[in-house]
Design brief:
The chain is an all-alpha fold. It has one domain (2-78). The protein has two helices and no strands. Helix 1 packs antiparallel against helix 2 (40-78). The chain starts with a helix and ends with a helix.
Length: 79
């Protein structure tokens, strides 16, 4: 039973890392656009990508939280 929880926890953490990386990349493009080098469509695309990455991070955090709660419940049950 611990293996699926471990897998869920790993998947959730990987999702958080990927989402944060995507947020960083989009933020860098948006910051560079302040110099006027990016088109409005590039800016819009990166703003949308940031929103999607934010939702990915939120969903991944929910996975990690659920795995943690489930593991805690299993430990409490066994104790």
């Amino acid at each position: 039973m611990i293996s699926p929880l471990s897998s869920s926890l790993s998947t959730g953490l990987a999702g958080v890392q990927k989402g944060m990386s995507s947020l960083d990349q989009s933020a860098a493009v948006i910051a560079r656009s302040a110099t006027g080098s990016a088109s409005s469509s590039t800016l819009t695309q990166n703003l949308v990508q940031m929103q999607a990455a934010s939702q990915q991070v939120q969903a991944s955090v929910a996975v990690v939280r659920t795995a943690d709660q489930t593991l805690g419940l299993l430990v409490d049950t066994r104790a």
